[in-house]
């Protein structure tokens, strides 16, 4: 775990260094939302992205804000971890099927970003103990590469942003 955290911190872009800073500085989550939108836009501009021959399983990341607010932070974290692990797997699987350079480059970038959030959320200290990847989020199968980017943007804009907002109430006094 410590090796993963050290590796993660060494390979992060400037500004991603502290979980507390990520939660407490609202500009950072806005930056990541902007990056997700840019990745989605650039992927949409790639010429002739083929449909995937093997469909990717993507999490359904829509949620009711009312229900979301009633959940414990640990429950929210586990739900987001499940969504992210599916997304990381979908990005990796799609990357193996896309030979076109533009699409492959965007998928690699999305994989890195989603995996960074996955590692970061796994290293947050919680009373409930370590994360076990035993989850079955609501999901759907997709053959369009662009749907992976859409799902990632929706996850960052929705659950992640609200989760960080909720954590900020406790961590950023």
UniProtKB/TrEMBL annotation:
GO cellular component labels: extracellular region
InterPro entries according to UniProt: 4_helix_cytokine-like_core, EPO/TPO_CS, EPO_TPO, Thrombopoietin
Keywords: Disulfide bond, Glycoprotein, Hormone, Secreted, Signal
Lineage: Eukaryota, Metazoa, Chordata, Craniata, Vertebrata
Signal peptide: 1-17
Family listed: Belongs to the EPO/TPO family.
Pfam families: EPO_TPO
MF terms (GO), sorted A to Z: cytokine activity; hormone activity
GO biological process: cell population proliferation; positive regulation of ERK1 and ERK2 cascade; positive regulation of hematopoietic stem cell proliferation; thrombopoietin-mediated signaling pathway
Subcellular compartments: Secreted
Protein name, entry field: TPO protein
Encoding gene per record: Thpo
Stretches of the chain forming a coiled coil according to its record: none
